[in-house]
Write a structure and sequence with these properties.
The chain is mostly helical. It contains two helices and no strands.
């Protein structure tokens, strides 16, 4: 693209009225409107097929199938009992365990912290007057 020709007035300043910005190039045609596509609905992730662990021979196993089933059943009963009786989450149990520790820390440290901050604020206000 060519630079426009600049004319100088007799005073040595640029004559802005004489600058022509008309190009011989035609105006570009406007772009067609963008095609809006509807987003595809989310697809369910394919479930991985369970991989069976290779069955060990009976000689290598430490417990029999009957013992394994009995122990598994006992643990399922225990898990069902805990959930149905309390219906508490791990967060609830951790919160209950941390509450006494937090209370003790606050009892020991909060009065000193508040006193120090109040004293600093009083000094700041007193200097401001």
């Amino acid at each position: 693209m060519e630079e426009p020709e600049i004319d100088f007035a007799e005073s040595g300043q640029i004559d802005f009225d004489s600058i022509s910005f008309d190009d011989d190039e035609p105006e570009p045609e406007p772009l067609p409107p963008p095609v809006v596509r509807q987003p595809e609905p989310p697809r369910a992730a394919p479930r991985p097929e369970p991989v069976e662990a290779p069955r060990e021979s009976l000689k290598q196993r430490l417990v029999s199938d009957l013992t394994d089933a009995s122990v598994g059943h006992a643990f399922q009963l225990l898990a069902g009992t805990r959930v149905s009786q309390n219906a508490r989450t791990i967060e609830d149990m951790v919160q209950d365990m941390l509450r006494p520790m937090l209370q003790s820390w606050l009892d020991d440290n909060l009065p000193g912290m508040v006193e120090r901050l109040v004293r600093a604020e009083i000094e700041r206000v007193a200097r401001g007057r």
